[in-house]
Amino acid sequence: MKKLLISSCLLGENVRYDGKIKRCMDPLFYEIIKNSQIFTVCPEVDGGLPTPRDPSEIVSLNPLKIVNSKGKDVTSFFEKGAKKALKVCKKHKIKVALLKSKSPSCSNNFIYDGTFSKKLIKGEGVTAKLLKENGIKVFNENELIDLLEYLKKI
Ligand code: SF4
What we know:
By secondary structure, the protein is α/β, with parallel strands linked by helices. It has one domain (about 1-154). About 30% of the residues lie in helices and about 25% in strands. The strands form three sheets. Strands 2-1-5-8 form a four-stranded parallel β-sheet, with helices on both faces. It is globular and about 45 Å long. Iron/sulfur cluster binds next to helix 2. Iron/sulfur cluster binds near residues 9 and 15.
């Protein structure tokens, strides 16, 4: 069985900022998790943030700065959660991750632009970026066909 790191909110765990349960309902998702050894993380909760919590957005990449909708700097929580996710991958030799799209932690392609106006821009969440930099292939829940193909090849 292939090892796979998964954003725990995709499995319906109550870790989202808004406290809502949003399980991924795609049949392919179930096929993938049934045939994988899964390891779950929620970098924001693992980094010390509560559920529910105020939504956060990345306002600066260099230096990294993430603030919540009340203006509080929450960068350190995100960095801590990302490091913990990488630690899980290293400990268990995980080379592939399925992470939630559009999240300032987990997204592998688009993030909100830092103005809290629901505008998406190209960019990566803190955890997805760190995992990629360490050679871990990251997919999101809209790339399940690609993930399935990838898992068959490795
Ligand atoms: S997207 Fe990532 S950080 Fe956000 S709730 Fe899901 S697992 Fe946690």
